[in-house]
From TrEMBL:
Transmembrane segments: none
Keyword Iron included in the entry's annotation: yes
Signal sequence interval, chain numbering: 1-43
SUPFAM superfamilies to which the protein is assigned, alphabetical: ADC-like (SSF50692), Formate dehydrogenase/DMSO reductase, domains 1-3 (SSF53706)
Domain (4Fe-4S Mo/W bis-MGD-type): residue spans on this chain: 69-130
Keywords of the record: Iron, Iron-sulfur, Metal-binding, Molybdenum, Oxidoreductase, Signal
Top-level taxon of the source organism: Bacteria
Record bears the keyword Phosphoprotein: no
Protein name: Molybdopterin-dependent oxidoreductase
Cofactor: Mo-bis(molybdopterin guanine dinucleotide)
């Protein structure tokens, strides 16, 4: 395997008997122990003996269970859906082992929050050979802009090690020049990252250009608050499915998209298994019969990517047919009291068109009844399966309809949330035990409802005599670029501004009339988010990175984004402290019933600094008041969060303090701003255990039935829509999409079928004759156990356990002469990459799965090995400004070179120092 272009490498031949940090090394009695070489070595060459294994260095405690140490609760901080408890065994500043939740007995009342392979491999992030160890500068770049930039060399230039003082001076000099010359509109923070330290600096300097995105929620990001359904999961009013104990009362759990077994590898999948044990029958609808479906013995209804709307329209048609044929299928009472716009008798006042969803389904407006036969040709589901589904979701069956967000990350999915809501309302699947409709997403998945225990604000208690901090982080720039056009805006110096897509507080659209604006981006700030891999159109992103004057990256590993930067700063992980204090979800992640109180386990490794320390130093060099930016220490803010944590009381409604704090605790901790209080658990116990779990039991008063109050009294408990009801005719949706203008014509206020751009129908050169085109295969991107988004991709343990393949149907593979394990070229007009084929019988013909988040590895031939799916998409969007991550077309052929090493045997390529 050829090395990455332009990256030289120092090969480490020997390793020390133990790993020590630079801080521990200086002045330490263990100074005789060697540090690893200055550069980052291939992880596959490092071992306890110097040969064969992937461990950074000898960790004797791995082999000797008698070694004393401390079990420290640590965060599993990546953005997967499990959010599980981890504990790190620390011996002499080294994490030797990792375990998961064993604090509570694993019962129905207090389930254990057990980690998946990703969490159990976290120590490789801290001690892995791919750690960024010191600040680095691209050799061809210097401050000043112009001829000093050499932007075309980004991604292929060599690197040099610099000191922290040099790095801070370079960065401060260049940032001051850019802000003084071009202002805040010239700076983009390219990703949300794990914290807010970056924006905490950039805001007071003059702001930065933000971006609006619908990458995760897809089209559910846009208008579901206006619809009254609130499928923006977790936001105020957004708890749209029931809790885990209610899953035990349902007859059918119908999953449309989603794969919790991979994406939410902890408790969410366990709750589904409990429901199976209780008798629930599972149905899975999607292009592959995935691990979730097979584990739960689900009935699989195959469905092509991007065609869910057609499937559901046909299901609604069949429900209407069955209602007319024999009755007692549709919940007319719920439709009458709780919705508007289903039929001509329930239209809102002042409707813009005299049309409704029922008549559209029956073909009144286009002479195309949305029959199962009509949908089957588009979506690939059999007529029999569509009819079976319609029969199943009738009102007399207790159905919990759970959908992943993958179907909404498609072109043409603008009406998917509305038709999903329409079918759910026809069956009356809201507001009753065993009935629900909403997302299966993140750590709310399968256990929805307001949190019963919550972390507190990182501020002193009221009445403590310590002032609250001053907010110095407002973004002073009113620009907001849609993320789909982020790189294009940088490259073209022009973009279309729409305002803010959505106000999370009430779902109200803030999209304004489109306004053309010029933009001159000179700096890209990126921290932890690996934006080149995770944002759409990686090829356009590379051009954008090469165009600007300065790119700065903070991270703990050398990501593809770091590769295209000018200065890369080694940042600490959440296990190293005192670390960052800005992101509460990292130290205090939770599900509905569980709160974690994590700690730092080890000192910062090598020369890594926390993002707070980095920002604080830069702020001082740029003339900002660091005392105002950071009025409290990291330790103080962590203590405030614990002290301000709340838990539900016995009445099931009010909340009180979680943690008991005595005056002795306050004196011992030495933290100003704490006051004595009575809670449920002592300070020492919560800190030692790292977890608090609110016990549940059948029949308690802590349950959650979404929409229950609304169903009982819709007028007294209105939804956030304009009518207060669920709007199957939603004028706000039409107004929003029309203001965006991407559709080219007005989108009706009810759900219609929109032909997806780059969807199944576009895979044909001629649809009528069914002659296939140049790119006949549909690509979708699963979340995969190898990664959490783009994190973990260089984790050697996970590379050994999980390849980074392209999954394809056995018939499609045979047609191309491809066998399991062959290296294949995946390509279209936008880009290409090479991966190994995993040939399966559980994938629909014509569909391929390219798991999300992989890091491109560039070879001498300029084709990426392990390339990410965003190499295949362009910047086009559909009516709702949605970039079709799961509506991409490609072709696959057997690659000419079959001598590429497998993932686990390829070195983790890093820039070295000659």
């Amino acid at each position: 395997m050829a090395k990455r272009r332009g990256c030289s490498m120092t090969m480490v031949k020997k390793v020390a008997d133990s790993v020590v940090t630079r801080r521990a090394f200086v002045g330490s009695a263990s100074a005789a122990a060697m540090l690893l070489a200055a550069g980052c070595a291939p992880a596959s060459q490092l071992s306890e003996t110097g040969e064969g294994s992937s461990d950074v260095a000898a960790l004797p405690a791995d082999l000797d269970e008698s070694v004393d140490g401390e079990w420290v609760p640590v965060p599993c901080w990546m953005s997967c859906g499990g959010k599980c408890l981890l504990k790190a065994h620390v011996v002499d500043g080294i994490v030797t082992r990792v375990k998961t939740d064993d604090v509570y007995e694993d019962t129905l009342e207090t389930f254990q929050n057990r980690g998946c392979p990703r969490g159990r491999s976290q120590r490789k992030h801290i001690f892995g050979a791919d750690r960024l160890k010191y600040p680095m500068k691209r050799k061809g770049w210097m401050p000043g802009g112009g001829e000093n930039v050499n932007g075309d060399l980004r991604g292929r230039d060599e690197w040099e090690r610099i000191s922290w003082d040099e790095a801070f001076d370079y960065i401060a000099e260049e940032m001051r020049r850019i802000y003084d010359t071009y202002g805040g509109r010239s700076v983009i923070r390219a990703n949300f990252g794990r914290g807010i330290a970056g924006s905490k600096l950039l805001g007071p300097l003059g702001g930065f250009v933000p971006f609006e995105f619908c990458d995760s929620y897809g089209t559910n990001f846009m208008y579901t608050g206006n619809l009254g359904g609130y499928f923006n999961h977790g936001e105020p009013g957004g708890w749209s499915t029931n809790d885990r104990l209610d899953l035990l009362k349902t007859d059918y759990i119908i999953m449309q998209g989603g794969n919790p077994a991979w994406a939410s590898g902890g408790a969410p999948m366990f709750h589904l298994w409990r429901a199976k044990e209780a008798g629930a029958q599972f149905v899975y609808i999607g292009p592959e019969c995935n691990l979730t479906a097979t584990t739960l013995d689900a009935k699989w209804i195959p469905l092509r990517p991007g065609t869910d709307t057609a499937f559901l329209l046909a299901a609604a048609y069949e429900m209407l047919r069955l209602e007319e044929e024999r009755g007692d299928i549709i919940d007319w009472d719920f439709l009458d009291r709780c919705t508007i716009g289903f039929d001509a008798d329930h239209m809102p006042e002042g409707a813009s068109v005299n049309e409704n969803i029922k008549d559209y389904i029956l073909g009144a407006y286009d002479n195309v009844p949305k029959t199962p036969e009509w949908a089957s040709e588009i979506c690939g589901s059999s007529v029999e399966d569509i009819k079976w589904y319609a029969e199943t979701v009738q009102k007399n069956n207790k159905c919990t309809m759970l959908f992943g967000y993958a179907p909404s990350r498609c072109n043409g999915a603008e009406n998917l949330p509305q038709i999903m809501e329409t079918v759910a309302c026809m069956g009356g699947h809201h507001g009753k035990e065993g009935h629900a409709c909403g997302p299966v997403y993140h750590f709310w998945a399968t256990n929805d409802g307001p949190a019963l225990v919550e972390i507190g604000n990182p501020e002193p208690a009221e009445g403590s005599g310590v002032a609250a901090p001053i907010d110095l982080t407002p973004n002073l720039v009113d620009d907001a670029i849609l993320s789909n056009y982020l790189w294009q805006a940088v490259n073209e110096g022009h973009y279309t501004w729409f305002g803010t897509v959505v106000d999370y507080t009430d779902g109200t659209s803030l999209i304004q009339k489109a306004e053309e604006r010029d933009i001159d981006i000179r700096m890209i700030w990126t921290d932890y988010g690996n934006s080149l891999t995770t944002r759409g159109n990686t090829n356009e992103g590379i051009k954008a990175f090469r165009k600007v004057d300065f790119v700065l990256t903070l991270d703990y590993v050398f990501t593809p984004t770091a590769q295209y930067s000018d200065i890369v700063l080694p940042a600490t992980t959440p296990w190293e402290g005192p670390g960052y204090e800005d992101q509460a979800s990292c130290f205090n992640t939770h599900n509905r019933e569980t709160l974690y109180i994590s700690r730092w386990a080890v000192a910062p490794q090598f020369e890594a600094k926390s993002d707070r320390e980095i920002v604080e130093t830069l702020a001082g060099k740029l003339g900002l008041d660091t005392a105002a930016l950071f009025p409290y220490t990291t330790e103080e803010m962590h203590a405030y969060r614990i002290a301000n944590a709340t838990v539900v009381q016995e009445d099931g409604e009010t909340f009180g303090p979680l943690v008991t704090i005595t005056q002795e605790d306050i004196d011992r901790l030495g933290v100003k701003g704490l006051v004595p209080q009575k809670g449920k658990i002592s300070w020492d116990e919560i800190v030692a255990n790292g977890i608090y779990h609110v016990a549940r039991k059948k029949g308690d008063n802590l349950g959650w039935i979404a929409y229950e109050d609304f169903r009982r009294d819709p007028e007294g408990n209105p939804r956030a829509s304009a009518s207060g009801k669920i709007e199957l005719f939603c004028q706000a949706k039409t107004d929003m999409l029309d203001r965006l203008g991407f559709a080219g014509e007005s989108i009706p206020p009810y759900a219609t079928y929109l032909r997806p751009l780059h969807g199944y129908e576009d895979s044909f050169e001629d649809w009528a004759s069914k002659k296939k085109g140049a790119y006949p295969l549909q690509v979708f991107n699963s979340h995969y156990l190898r990664r959490a988004h783009s994190a973990f991709d260089t984790n050697v343990w996970l590379r050994e356990a999980f390849k980074s393949p392209v999954f394809m149907n056995a018939a499609d593979a045979a047609e191309r002469g491809i066998e399991n394990g062959d290296w294949v070229r995946v390509f279209n007009e936008s880009g290409e990459f090479v991966r190994q084929a995993s040939v399966v019988d559980t994938m629909m013909p014509g569909c391929v799965d390219v798991p999300h988040g992989s890091w491109p590895e560039w070879s001498e031939g300029d084709i990426s090995v392990n390339g990410g799916p965003n190499l295949l998409n362009d910047s086009s969007v559909s009516a709702g400004a949605q970039q079709g991550y799961n509506t991409v077309l490609c072709q696959i052929e057997k690659y000419e070179n079959q001598d590429i090493l497998p993932d686990a045997e390829r070195p983790v390529i890093m820039p070295g120092i000659e």
